[in-house]
Request: fold
Amino acid sequence: MSIAVTAILLGIAWPSLSAPAESKSACVPIATFSLGSVRIGMRADSLLAQLGRPLETRRDTTAGEDWLFPLVRHRYRDLEVTISQASGRVSEIKALTSALTTGTGLRLGMSRHDVERSMPGVRLVASTNDAGQTAYTAEACAGGRATDIWLVFDARSVLTQLQLVGFLPSTDDQGRLLPNKPLLLTNAFLW
Reply:
């Protein structure tokens, strides 16, 4: 069974990509999977307590082969956060401005050189998304192939899109890994 089919069966919308390059590279540290104070896998109630009422909330659905997975997207000034209704956890974080950084210092507006320097040993794998853009991905050190960072650079090699996606091992509200817990599955995103 392909990774994309497996992802769909788990309720993860796999982005449509043309011939991604395979890579055996260092993984992206778990600390990267936060933007400001928001983390992949964070509980929805913790998110709302921390950030307050969003500027906009919309309900959405990710489609699997014969399943629909409900999502809630909260838009704030500097980021958009997707909550999986199945798990009640953050499954996607999208940067909207350069005001917030990831736990490892990535932010919109950085040069590609600076992005690569902040992730030593991590090879960014190029793919083409549905919009015809070249998107670069790298996998997390935990969570498997469905936990990724997605980056898009403009013609000047400036980071213009930054998305954190997927599922991570179970964590507490401060992002610390909980021992002997199964992976926390959350829905991902449609690119």
Q: What stands out?
A: Confidence is low (pLDDT under 50) at residues 1-24, 180-191. Helices lie at 3-9, 44-51, 112-118. The chain has three helices and ten strands.
